[in-house]
Amino acid sequence: MKAMKIVVSTFVVLFSAIVVVAQPPKREKIDPAERADRMTKQMTEQLALSDEQADQIRQILTDNFTQMEADRPQKPAMGEQKMDKPKRERMSIDSTKADSLKNVRMERMSKMDEQIKGVLTEDQYAKWTEQRAAMQNRRPEGMKRRPAPEGMNIPDGPEGDM
């Protein structure tokens, strides 16, 4: 009888450990200014930006990231969701709304790209676009970028358009 309790207890502990390990870690939410600072620091190191360029880039990125945060759809609190609808319906976004958000995001990215292009020299901009393309190609297959919006100068990697 004791052996059976030990076996069951061991099974419960192992199963619990597997469930806990299988849970993805929660990502820390980074505020737009901190995100812009990190990216500006990285660009300064990689592209040898002057102090004036770094300040301009930081401002462009902060404005863009702040706007992205404001446009991001807010998830309703647990108590605010109507529980009579299936979960899939509660969490889905209307496809026209999703297309609209995608278009707004693409326009913002194009605008940001043009602003950054105005701050960087031609050589710095070329190096920056190459680095972005390389970073996109390092992503796992499911997270590859969509084709760049018109007007954005991002060279395609070896895989071409996804």
Account of the protein in words:
- With 162 residues, the chain is mostly helical.
- It has a domain of 55 residues.
- It has 6 helices and no strands.
- The longest helix has 25 residues.
- The C terminus is likely disordered.
Helix percentage range: 55-70%
Shape annotation: elongated
Instruction: Please identify the structural class as seen in this structure.
Output: mainly alpha
Largest sheet: none
Mean pLDDT across all residues, rounded?
A: 77
* Count of distinct strands: 0
Stretches where pLDDT is under 50 for at least 5 consecutive residues are 157-162
Compressed to H and E, one letter per element, the order equals: HHHHHH
| Percent strand | under 5%
Taking all Cα atoms into account, the compactness measure Rg is 23 Å
Distance between the termini: 60 Å
Features:
162 residues; mainly alpha; 6 helices; 0% strand
Walk me through the topology.
Layout: H1 2-22, H2 32-47, H3 51-71, H4 87-91, H5 95-119, H6 122-138
Helix pairs in contact: 2-3, 3-5
Short précis:
By secondary structure, the chain is mostly helical. Helix content is 65%, strand content 0%.
